[in-house]
Specification:
CATH topology of the largest domain: Cytochrome Bc1 Complex, Chain A, domain 1
Number of domains: 2
Shape: globular
Strand content: 15-25%
Structural class: alpha+beta
Oligomer: single chain
Length: about 475
Amino acid sequence: MLLAVSVPVLAERPPAVPPKVFPYAIHKKTLANGLDVVVIETPEFKNVLSYNTLVMAGSRNELEKGKTGLAHLFEHILFRHAYKGQVGAYQDLMERLGTHNNAWTWFDITFYHPLTFTSNLAGRTLGTEQLPGVIELEASRFAALDFNEKIFKTETGAVLGEYRNSSTFPTLRMSERLLALAFPDHPYGHETIGYYEDVVAMPDHYEAARAFYDTYYRPNNCVVVVAGDVKADEVFAQAEARYRDWQPKPVKPVPEAAPLQGPKREQVGWPADVAPRLFLAYRQPRFETASVETAVGQLLAELLVSRSAPLYKKLRFEKQTVSELAFGEGTQGFESFDPRLAIFDAQLFKEQYAPKGAAYFDEVIRDIEQGAEDLKQFSRQKDAKQILQTLKSKYRYDFLGAMSSPAAIAQILAWYYRFERDPEVFEKLLGSVERLQPKDVDAFARKYFVPQNQVIITLAYQAAKAEK
């Protein structure tokens, strides 16, 4: 029978960051082994528990040649943890607790986010059986993951299938070439899923994979974020009991990327008759919560591709040269530990490409470059202050409005908290955006929207060559 450990509640909790803009206090305790435990009490979400573990390792940490894709692989393997030596026991117990259990991997991090009931935190009785709590199950798989080579090879097969599925979309091929051109000497140069040849060879990399887990799945390289109908002092006490034996280990630093040395441009052919597509990217600065440049970066999408932005109106409505226009880097934006790319993603029209060919791409590229160039004179617009104030207000309300559930609160906090591990990250980030002046936009554009920071990928249909 599995027994839940009874842990006394701490007499005193660490001081909480008082709510200012963000409506909830953020409680933090760092255990002796370096593990940060962050708790946001949201009692109005009755009996809801969002229990999240942020591992500060993603494809950026895949430093060994030929061994890419390991961070994403472990996102899979952690769900196959043999709790107390029983194959399949971890996932089975999570399901019996009624837990929605998922995770995702990105360039900088891997994020695990079980969502369950508060009553499952420390354990519960089901019939005559005592089930372990979510905190026990999570601590077990992060501190002492149990898997064998058979499970490893099964999951490498699943990853290969995932790659093959993704490769049917032209955007993966475009992104692979874009990153390779922008980061030839840095692990940002490959996609999170890894190079195809490395994914194919992954079943032979069992020892390298174990070394990756042993290096990066350490308490000093992780953050536990708990949000919901919980009490911080109870979570801290349980965390102390469950995680205290997890041993820290130094994490190898990632070398800085060399300057991009653009402009760089490459054409990608695609065997299916799809709409032409364009990625135009500029190298951007690393994320620093309270910096002016980071604050400008938070507003770039609104300034450049929102429906009211001059560039968007020009391409979509006036010239009608693109059917879609977006900006950022995937779903998360371009916040990152090291300088990354801010990408204009434009989908063009097949019927316009057919008669114009490369000249059509050139026209759209010139217009996007001019839109970026115009930001260098943003402060000279007669209504610049009012535009900026409107965008700052929208950013603030959108930012806070996105945190509509404990799960959303925990994920957004973890996303920004990881940079400086500061519980006041929301206040500092929103404060830095609020202080922006039009001249700050000018300065950012002049520094980063320059040819040496630029890389372009175009994609269009290319018929397969007939065999001789």
